[in-house]
Amino acid sequence: MYNFLQLVRNENMKIYRRIGTWIMFGIILLIVVGVSILSKAFDEGGGSMWTVMNNIESFTYLLITIFTVVVSAESVAGEFSSGTIKLLLIRPWSRSKILLSKYIALLIFAILLSLLMLLSSFVLNLILFGYGDAKTASDALGVANGSGPFSYMMQVYVLDYLGLIMIVTLSFMLSTLFRSGGLAIGLSMFIYFFGLIASGLLSMLDYKWVDYLLFLHLNLKEYLSSKEIAHGMTMGFSLAVLAVYYIVFVGITWLVFNKRDVAT
Amino acid sequence: MGYGTVSDEQPVVRLQQVTKVIGTRTIIDGLTLDIPRAEVLGFLGPNGSGKTTTIRMMVGLMRMTKGDVLIGGHSVRTEYEQAIRHVGAIVENPEMYKYLTGYQNLLHFSRMVPGITSQRIDEVVQLVGLKERIHDKVKTYSLGMRQRLGVAQAIMHKPSLLILDEPTNGLDPAGIRELRDYLRKLAKDEGIAVFVSSHLLSEMELMCDRVAIIQGGKLIDVRTVQSSAQLAETSGPVVFEVDRPDEAVELLAKHEAARVEEGALVRADRDTVALINAELVGAGIKVYGIRILNKSLEDQFLEMTGGGQLV
After folding, report:
1. Is A90 in Cβ contact with B91 (below 8 Å)?
2. Contact check, Cβ <8 Å, B99/A6
3. Domain boundaries defined on chain B
4. DSSP β-bridge partners for residue B215
5. What is the pLDDT of residue B311?
6. What is the ipTM of this complex?
């Protein structure tokens, strides 16, 4: 079989040859630079590179989620709405592999955005504030976590990336199901933000089924400062719930994409 | 790698009882058709007769309810990747990635089939006449240029079957003529089978060796297209446009000439036409034109499908 990587290269080309993609990278960089400089300018002695990095991560990751959802929603639906899906599928490749190449390109895009934010905020704040020599995340950030601050930040990024994968996979599924980028973006964003807002309220409900809702498990970094969150749920339980959702999303996506008649 | 790597004896494509049922409606009903090498086969039918659905099933975009399509002996159902390997196609409009350049589009599709070199890409770009504009974004292209880019991606991997759905849409007369000549050349020189759908009947007459006519999802006829040169080999109706028709009819009594509006109508073969012409000129009658009256494909088609539903 010839090179599957060529398919991923194609999908990358379709992502990075768009101006919109570079605007997304630009916005992330702009926010990191802006927030870092402002934090330094208005610093009253309490700030360190770790606090600024942590602040940037906690709200810019929302933006990364939105951007990735947009690219993911366009990935399949865009091929249908432009009609290019017909030329894409009539090649000596199975539909599954074509879909996989798209999915891999999306995960790479999400990693690149995250890496850009991680590296730029680390380097910039190292320059602005100097190396923060706090021994633990607890000293540096006031969170109940005994790891070193750098290792804590890495864990935060990895856990947020896991949550991101879930939303991207959901958006990818909706994109495949509805073949409409707008609908996929709207619906995934609704589910994501509704979850953020409502998860606090929902977790107060004393029903067992609440534990199995997707959005209660998307904010995995809560587990970094406590072993258990609401309802006595543990990290292991959350990961198991997410794994089940993940398998269902991926299963539906591949099944529908393989079976569907292309009649656009 | 050359065109037409499929063995010579068997037809490049075999449609076997291809059927598509959606809900309770039978869209395509037991279509059986072979396309041999080096043939341009037209696929003719009124709008909604199932042309595009058939093409979509041939290239695996839609599933068949019953039947199978064999391309180079490989089943589209069960050996899709081998079957589609030697197919180049445009399905409906040649939709390309508009935010990419023409070249990037070709690069994209070339990566999906092994063995396409950058020289080959340059070669097809030259062939379809897009050399000057290939590094411009597709969104700046005219419809005709997109059509040509579509042809480029379809022939890039030297297929043994070329499927073109309404390829003359949006082309100007010069473009149509160019495409027609090129398709005939591909079929004759490279031995590839070309399957072209259209509702432009006059186009089909000029382009195709045979025409398959579909109506209401059923194949109603497959016939050979005769060029006017071939028709003239046999005796057929010929009209002589002259200045004095009555005299001409009298003069041509032995050819059983009849008076028609424009002049004299006779049945004659090629040589006789020349003789009659000499006779008329010899008698001082001015000959303005000689026209062979063949029943055009359009007439035949309208007769068969009952007209009406035609665009």
Report:
1. yes
2. no
3. 13-226, 229-292
4. B218
5. 35
6. 0.90
